[in-house]
Amino acid sequence: MLCEPKHWSFCKLDFVSKNYAFQCRSIVEQSIQFHHTGSEIVTLVEDRKLCKIQQENITSNGIIPPALQDTLGFPTLQSDINGKTLQENWKKMQIPRTYISGTLAVSILFIVGFCLQKANLIFPCKQEQIINYSEKTAAQEIELAHYERLRLVKSRNLRQMALFVLTPWLAPIVWNGTFDLSVLDKQHNNTRIGLFVFAVKKYIRFLQLFLETAERYFMVGHKVTYYVFTDKVDEVVKPKMADGRILQIHNVVADKRWQDVSMRRMEVLTVYTKKHMPNEIDYLVCADVDMVFTDHVGVEILGDLVAAIHPGFFLSDRESFTYEDRPISAAYIPQGEGDFYYAGALYGGKLDEIYKLSTTCQNGIIEDKKKNIEALWQEESHLNRYLVYNKPTKLLSPEYIWDTNLPYEEFIKKKRFVIVNKNKRKITR
Predict the structure, then answer these.
(1) Which residue in 380, 399, 409, 410 is the catalytic one?
(2) What are 286's strand-pairing partners?
(3) pTM of the model
(4) What are the boundaries of each domain within the chain?
(5) Which H helix or E strand runs over 108?
(6) 409 an active-site residue?
(7) How confident is the model at residue 388, as a pLDDT?
(8) What percent of the chain has pLDDT over 90?
(9) Can you identify the CATH homologous superfamily of domain 139-428?
(10) In sequence order, which residues have a C-beta less than 8 Å from that of residue 315 and are 6 or more positions away?
């Protein structure tokens, strides 16, 4: 529609629409600001061309007709006493340049300050990586120790599997330096740990040294309950113990044969892990009494189901493992099965896992007795059978169970739990 002088009233009604009035006013303001001449056409647009203001609609001195001024919200400049033009009045309405300059200066300073603080984000560049040299050195030592073990193995054509830090099923093998004890100690701050040991007949002689060295090296700083089972309760010497550590002494019947004593442990474990221990501890470690702690043994050995690699077979081929090979036995392991040979002198885990292990082994022992047979290495044979088909979640390297009479001592830099040298014939009589 063309807006002519006679149509001002129509245009005014048309411009009452909020959007139209705003857009028309904006374009007229811009026309005046940029000094458009009366010969130019100012186009008012929303979605389509709504109206055109032609030359005759704007007077030669740039004054907007009164009707349109009123609609767009402009002052009636014709009544201006001084006869000022709309351009001059517009300049009065503008913000002073000093204010604009000041605002721009403050904005620039703000942007510069932000850029300086966030320079890494705005201007990314390669920066030097902060290296914790103690951690780097420790990692290098672990790697060097690993390669040193492999070098020794290759030079003698020995089996390598036990020297790695992961099993084929991705369970960790704990070697010195493969754990951060400070982190683990915090994780197990309130963990309750049990140490289970049998000391019957003449094996009572090893108990005092076992307990004394345990107080010095075993789970230092943590809550520990010692579960001692013996037929000589009166002969137990209680060592000086740290706070939070408890000694429980339980009477047990001593079997005539040491083989039966060995197997009796599974029976006792089954009963106590089910009825007595759940309210007292979270993890249980089972150990032979004829051993001593000679270095740190801490929470790094804890896991759902933990087994120790036997020091006599850690470099041996599977064919050399002394598994029970008679199919008639419940401890039987077929040829070609198994990854490691595990020691019966040290194993552990969460109570529910130890309960399942001891129950299975005890049932196997009972089954063999019914057939009038006995597994080659008694409870250790049944333990290996269980662990072949129920993979442990963590393995302990021979550092955690060592015999000083064995070869390949150069592979073991730390000897933490060591078998006591003894005359076995004298003790077992």
Answers:
(1) 380
(2) 196, 347
(3) 0.65
(4) 2-94, 139-428
(5) helix 97-117
(6) no
(7) 97
(8) 53
(9) Spore Coat Polysaccharide Biosynthesis Protein SpsA; Chain A (3.90.550.10)
(10) 153, 158, 159, 162, 163, 408, 411
